Amino acid sequence: MKSHIMPTYSRLAVSFDRGEGVWLWDQNNHRYLDALAGISVCNLGHAHPAISDAITQQASRLIHTSNLYHIANQEQLAGQLAELSAMESVFFCNSGAEANEAAIKLARRYGHRNGIERPEIIVMQGSFHGRTLATLSATGNPGIQHGFEPLVDGFIHAPYNNVDALQALTSNPSIVAVLVEPVQGEGGINIPDPRYLKQLRDLCDQNNWLLMLDEIQTGIGRTGAMFAFQHADIAPDVCTLAKALANGVPIGACMASSKAADILVAGTHGSTFGGNPLACAAALAVLKVFQDTHLLQKAAEMGHYLLESLQQALSDQDKVVAVRGSGMMIGIQLHEECTELVNQALAMQTLINVTAGHTIRLLPPLILERHQADQLVDTLRQLVINKKSAI
After folding, report:
1. What is the mean pLDDT of the segment spanning 260-273?
2. Domains of the chain, with CATH numbers?
3. Residue 391's pLDDT is what?
4. pLDDT, average across residues 340-353
5. Integer Cα distance of 43 and 72 in angstroms
6. What is the spatial distance between Cα 292 and Cα 290, in angstroms, rounded to a whole number?
7. Quick check: 302 and 376 in contact, CB under 8 A?
8. What is the pLDDT of residues 311-332, one digit of tens each?
9. Distance from the CA of 261 to the CA of which of 86, 192, 211, 380 falls in 20 to 30 A?
């Protein structure tokens, strides 16, 4: 049968019918261990009863009104995010790309407020911020930009985890902000030096730049803290969220504080669906699960266990460059490209991802149990051992 879906994804030969916890079942009732969680979306696993109940109850009452009116769920969610993050104001949208678009617009408006005619934002090589035209332009991957030129200007690409390179840019009077991922996800699970975010914070303070953190993939518990910036004990001026915020219901958020909190005002930005009652009900239920459980501690502990187990299991493999991770965000970098391992893992009823061509990316649900982690480690060891060299 001819598909009428635009072929923007190279989809795997499987379709899932239902899920529960860390498991997914296909249409033939075969069970798969999900070590990707919808790309760091279903942090609480699939069909979590608290999330399902919140969605069902809200859908039976009210799904949408628009932001022309006050939305009680939205106000409550903004308040909880502000309390958890120590930020001051929140703009809600529908995706990570939209959240980053809001951050980019905020930074440009901040620059104009300060008399800068053509504001520029420092972004990082190897980064990923979305596929809209502005976020694509901010992304540090020429491969995914190809064919969409002319790109949006106003971005300066600098090396990741290199504060000296940014220090060299301080003489540029047009720079207004730094946009950076605390851990580069699509770039290959690249983890910076522990002092990196603190050094960026100091540099931004010295130059009156905004520090804007893209926590689309790292936020909502993925690294063992609610927000990855909390590991560095700093506060950003802007922080973007999406993915895991509502455990699969589309929502994005751009949070701002201090000098960035009041930049976007009525008429400067908007979203028809952003922060609607249904999405906010799901997000509130997600935050309540974290509040009522020790899930952050579990994610930190299980992430450490999984990382150590993989490092030990693959320590004798010359094909492996490094195994690195932050909480439940783990990358296994190989010397060669390894995209074929995704289909091989699928045949072993395990869902993984390969990013940057050579790094196996693992983003399992935070509810992963030890015996499930052991199963995942065994599968990955088999995949790496049996990988055939391309040479």
Report:
1. 97
2. 16-34+294-386 (3.90.1150.10), 51-292 (3.40.640.10)
3. 55
4. 98
5. 25
6. 6
7. no
8. 999 999 999 999 999 999 999 9
9. 192
